[in-house]
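Give me structure tokens for this 311-residue protein.
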Amino acid sequence: MIENIAVQRLTQTKYGLGTLNTLTLFGTVDQLILDRSFELIAKYEDLLTINRATSQALAISQAAGKHPVQVSAPVYQLIKLALAASCENFGFNAAIGPLVKLWDIGFSDAHVPTAAEIQRCHNLIDPTQIQLEDRNFSVYLPQTGMKLDLGGIAKGYIADRIRDLWLAYGVSAGIINLGGNVLLVGAAPTHSDGRWVIGVQDPRQPRGASIGKVNLPACSAVTSGIYERTLKQDGQNYHHLLDPRTGYPLKTELAGVTIFAEKSVVAEIEAKRLFFAGQPLEGWLKSRSGLLGAVFVYQNGQTIPVGVELF
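Here you go.
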């Protein structure tokens, strides 16, 4: 939720990446820019989706245990970034595809798998096994049944590419909202200091519900939380954020955490890091460049801001 923005704007919403995407331009109200932006979203969806008959990401999984697959430079760059984060072993795992498919939370055949099924999946979700070849942008999953899952990082990467496009067109201000992952571009049009007032997602409520606001320069805001998709079975609720270390949804007192960072893909990764940590990490704000802050929201209603003031 963004407040106090200029009247002159151009906004368009389209479905893609499995969600609703809303792009808003201020000042430079050129429909061509929005058209090119949605074409870019469609292009990356064609490359990265695992929910269609063909894509580069799907081809990698289909060739698991058989042969490497050569991909385009952008896809390779994203996979390399995802694997680097995965190998830090904090909870994010780009090889978690078999486990996600096993639970299938959010889809009609979602169910709680047996311990034996989860154990079999564990042998297929080790990201350190995935082989990359920089010389020809090839990716190899060495075991049959391994599957890539870039869903935890793709929207942030795509949002950053849209911002690159907008800056090339000379866009002075805008909002990129890919299914709730927000990236602000330029200076807020009606604030003399150029800072934006950003609503912080209440992860205990449906998407769009705010628990408070922060005031920051242009950045990305990404929330990881238990509110997105759940499975209810035998009187228990299971959220969709699976812990690759156990094979089950992460046990946590957190409802969610929102990250503010200069790059949206960084916000995606760090949202997963802090959600799995379950609490603020000492020195986190200075651990890498471009981090602006975080807001932790617990299931009991407690909030802990880090590096930002919540009002």
